[in-house]
Amino acid sequence: MTVRVVCAQLDPVLLDLPGNLARAADAVATAVGRGADIVVLPELVTSGYLLDSTDEAMSVAITPDDARLAAWRAPLRGTGSLVVGGICERGEDGRLYNSAVLLDAGGVVAVYRKTHLWNREKRFFTPGAEPAPVLDTAFGRIGILVCYDLEFPEVPRTLALAGADLLLAPTNWSELPRPAGEQPPQVLNARMAARANHVFVAVCDRTGTERGQRWTGGTAVIDPEGWVLALPDEDGYAIADLVVESARNRQTSTVNHVLGDRRPDLYRL
Amino acid sequence: MTVRVVCAQLDPVLLDLPGNLARAADAVATAVGRGADIVVLPELVTSGYLLDSTDEAMSVAITPDDARLAAWRAPLRGTGSLVVGGICERGEDGRLYNSAVLLDAGGVVAVYRKTHLWNREKRFFTPGAEPAPVLDTAFGRIGILVCYDLEFPEVPRTLALAGADLLLAPTNWSELPRPAGEQPPQVLNARMAARANHVFVAVCDRTGTERGQRWTGGTAVIDPEGWVLALPDEDGYAIADLVVESARNRQTSTVNHVLGDRRPDLYRL
User: Fold this and answer.
1) What ipTM did this prediction achieve?
2) How far, in Å, CA of B84 to CA of B152, rounded?
3) 0.90 exceeded by the pTM?
4) Residues 6+ positions from B204 with CB-CB distance below 8 Å
5) CA-based nearest residue to A27, from A12, A15, A17
6) Interface contact flag, A185 B122, Cβ < 8 Å
7) Alpha-carbon distance A38 to B135, whole Å?
8) Which end of chain B is more exposed for a tag (fewer CB within 10 A), N or C?
9) Mean pLDDT across the stretch A132-149?
10) Looking at CA atoms only, how far is residue B201 from chain A in angstroms?
């Protein structure tokens, strides 16, 4: 089965919830127009990232079943396509979460609350209590994780061991200094997560600057050997067609297997 | 403390045990002459890699206390320096192991038997039963692993959690196809192992061709952010001075820590 993944690399405006919802909805429509089976949006695409306080975060927090997210679902109607993107979530417990929501035309398919929080996120977000999920969908077995989660090799490994073919990662990657000619280290890391686990990885990052923080624009669709299949075009869309089941052949020689060669008895994790 | 690591990228000759021992001894002498505190040699540097059978492997197998390894130790005399390199080991149990030996001027400091075996190695080597070790040395806390071990993120993670500052990895990396401008994927993988765990990594790979198999020559000394500090010079020596204790500061923001931010309760490994 060939699955078209489209990552829409956007530049959300901090605290502009209605504008961000609308821009993301437009991007979903464009992506579906370009044949997307799966649309990936950045982390915290509804709120912007560099929130400064609980009050600010609360002011742009929504629930995954917020009626306004119908605008993301509308372009999916009649397609079976899926969209995943990051929201600043107000939980039923009144707490704030940095979440990824997976939607289809009918509603909410899954919500994942980021389990590894970066820097100021710890001020106002509660880390998720549930591991990153793997969902059996019409487009293969999809693992979802968010940004800093990827820095912990245990997360993509856990998802691969749970059967994921494809990892979807909304991110907001801070721009880091790097030597000339080098890819951003977060992109290299995502590539090696793909390679170590023989899974496809689709990262949707963001562009722009917020409160002096520049973003990487590191969006990439990566194959199970760690090679980049697609980067954003001039409009910010990274588009790749994936034979998702090919990730499941994790045999690397007649006697080697990416996961089967593990020695869990010897790991002290 | 600044520690000079010198990786000596050689081209061992298959089945030429005396010649390989002598060439490695020369390389150790050269490295020590260039100020090495730690010398790293390739995997299976005494035997060559593409052994075809138990008989072939047995014909070039040695024990870690083989008298001929005194030639590697001689240049270390009076220095306190260390050398690690790969041998085809004949165990006291009569079995063959793909091992790394760590020697100082006085004798054998440690032996590590590779725990993840690649392809034909499974025909004649027994996988090690003990995890990759971390050794407290005069040059910092050193983790040792061999080649394919690095492909399992659990191994460098286990070593970092055990306190390693610096990982030493003798390798024989098969040359893989790669897009123009890309580093070998094994080098990228080693870089991301360094970054994910905030450790220095010194990989000593090999060059040449054996029985039609080309080798990568992927030797590199890598810093804890994943950047390459040194590649081989025209003589095959990669030389870097490491402030080894700097690996121990794994704080990445005032509230983030490379290891402390892990969520082991959520990993299913």
Assistant:
1) 0.97
2) 21
3) yes
4) B7, B8, B9, B40, B41, B42, B85, B168, B169, B170, B171, B219, B238
5) A12
6) no
7) 48
8) N
9) 98
10) 16
